[in-house]
Request: fold
Amino acid sequence: MFCRCEVAFGGEPNTRVCPVCLGLPGALPVPNKKAIEFVLRTALALNCKIAMRSVFHRKNYFYPDLPKGFQVSQYGETNPLGYHGFLDVPNAEGGIKRIGIRRIHLEEDTGKLMHLPSGGSGVDYNRAGVPLMEVVTDFPPDINTPDEAREYMVQLRQILLYLGVCDGKMEEGSMRCEPNISIRLEGAEELGTKTELKNLNSFRSVQLGIQFETRRQIAVLESGGKVAQETRGWNDATETSFAMRLKESENDYRYFEDPDLIPMEFTEEYIESLRATLPELPLAKYRRYMADYGMTTKEAGVLTGDKHWAGFFEQGVALGADPKLFSNWMNSELAKYLNETGQVIHADLADDHHALSKITPNHLLGLIVLIQDGTISGKTAKDIFREMLVSGDQASGILAKSNLTQISDDEQIKAWCKEVIQNNPDPVAKYKSGVINVIGFLVGQVMKQSQGRANAQLVQELMKAELENA
Amino acid sequence: MLTELSAVELAAKLRSREVSATEVAQAQLNRIAELDANLGAFLHVSPENVLEEAANAQKLLDSGEGGALTGVPIALKDNMCTLGLPTTCASKILENYIPPYDATVVGRLREQGLVLLGKTNMDEFAMGGSTEKSAYRSCHNPWDLTCAPGGSSGGSAVAVAGSLAPLSLGSDTGGSIRQPASLCGIVGFKPTYGRVSRYGLVAFSSSLDQIGPFGRSVEDVAAISDVISGYDHHDSTSLPNAGMDNSGLKDGTLKGKRFALPKELFGSGIEPGVLSVIHETIDLLKKEGVEFTEVSVPSIAQAVTIYYIIAPAEASSNLARFDGVRYGPRIEGDGHIGSAAKTRGELFGHEVKARIMIGTYALSAGYFDAYYLRAQQVRAVMAQDFEKIFAEFDAVFSPTSPAVAFKLGALDSDPMALKMLDLCTIPANMGGFPAISLNAGLSGGLPVGLQLMGPVMGDENLLQLAYSVERAMPAATVRPRL
Reply:
């Protein structure tokens, strides 16, 4: 946040450090402009008010993972870069749940304590000083169930990914969730004592953790006990929470303005210029897809769930693809293939383990056009698609090189029909006796003979005519 | 004698090849070897390093790529980080600590080929006004070895006053350059806050700390100010147009200049001997055409009070990093908090611990508004008061220190008296404006400093005025006999 060390996950301990993030004597912080911009864009996306003048504070406490003995953070109700906003979370019924956002502030991350194999502890400061944006939901809380908490996290992550401010990898800690959980009797006004849950590294553990905590608190109260105000850790293996530390009294962090940092002041023009960089956000896209393309909540949800997926779709549509057909192909064949191979459709998503797929919106569009104009059958399309994935060639090219063109030649098809009728007297007899369903079998035989290339609709028509004549 | 030459004279002789950088460095090393056992100005001197740097400087000079002060030796207060050289802040908690990087000022000195002579003695973490709080060795005033040199940059002041170095750098949080300059009879300059980068200066009070030079003349101080000032992207509080250009230093005049005399700095707290030297100087300067006007700045009465809230508050946080985990010695205790408490308890000196306690208290919930916030409000008022004066006057004129050098140990039982010695110097730190101390004469054989303060960013003008004042005062160049 205040130096130029690389932000990355893992790596040899204490290899991405400098005098500033190690808090060496004499080192001074200089704020990262990009990080401030990221928080402001997030705040705008989450409908927050922007603090036109915002300062950094020091939060003073001793802990080995805190190199300076204080954490640079932001204190106060209206001082954080963003405050008093909200996030609308769509639910499966097509409705919206509005979750209030109290504040979004910027601070620096701490290092990590590690237990050494040789015994004793060590500290890895690679993470120390990495920019940390904290999004705090409202109090009294709007989130009432573990499912809502999960949906909120899903929607928030989508927005962060759309904005490009975070890679959203919960398993690597680049997005973390620390829910505060309290319960009350149905109809009661006052909330019970809250507990805070840490170490939740997936959406699933967020949901399970809150579920567990809720049940645990109910059990404590029903057995006549009292819920202790404490921070609890989540054990993913046993799916239980455990006490970490009691919060008997509020710590005195001796917050004061960091004298090494000057106040941040923003102009209206600057904020508006940031607002202009906001992409269409997932919820707006979701609503637009349903309105413009007649999509179901499920289809729209799948397409907008990832900004690159939505981008792929929109490029296809921009090239003239039929939205429904295009989205069907994306969500079935393409999705299945990507899932099988671990490939990705955008360079930003590619890494050591995920190769970039050769399929572009243009490829998929070319394939769909051939289906639409009857050049190829649905089955052939799938074969071409597979071929396309490997070679990266356009569908028309693959088609030209092979003899996969659909056969719509009446005479050829008639000949096949006659042959099939001759070779299958029993089904033909059944058809004549009124079991007309059996035509499916006969058509299938023609398709087989044509190696799937015959125009199925034409076969159906001609078979019917031939049977009448037979 | 080479060691008696001014920095500017030395630089000229080095450029003309009349002397070599090695000869100059060796002369200073010899003088240090001869006198520092009794003066205690230095904490670390590595002759090998010094001679190596001198040889490098000579290469620069020979290639014609040298700057204004290439080859001139300089001493550094031991709170400025030096790559490969110890930086201890005169504290046991940083014993043998060698930083992995250079402070920005140190980098500038190296770039310009100045020769780093060594690290100077100071009050531990710059907390004190006498250099008696050094955890390593006592430091003595060259005018009277039984007296304190003032502080906290006492070692840097003594090095220059005793001609162990032609130049030195100190840091000034409430007067830590100007007060020892006054007590040792030399020139000490605190530039506008933000003109010299603080990156690599071990922080005491971030909003007040400012690096500045000591010299035996205003000309020397102006020359080194040009080298060390400048914007630094490593320091958020660095000013955009921080670089100084003192090429017009000698072009000024005192005729028609208007100096303000705040009556709060001429009151009963000032020693009669000091007052009489200052009044003599005023008479002298009147003859040069300076017009003096008495003014009142009531907020000055609160200067020491707010200083002892703001500085310790920031220090309590700045010094939290010394927990024995990452660097420096560590004393094991029960868990992290136990070890940190033991390390800090045993290795910080009494004064440092006292200030951390005061600062922690001032920032605590329930007291924050009454102490820290209130002090910041008074600070803002004081800065405004001075701004108004600077709108009407060319400079504010006062004694630098209410008293001359005192006997070592004399104020041990009177910490308040020691703190009151900062009365005249604190306002410049509160307002961030530049201030300089010059020797005005002697009282009882000990130097008396006068202080000139100017508006924020008025450093060049202030130095120009100081240069003219120095020319008018015969006492300005009196040296101690060692």
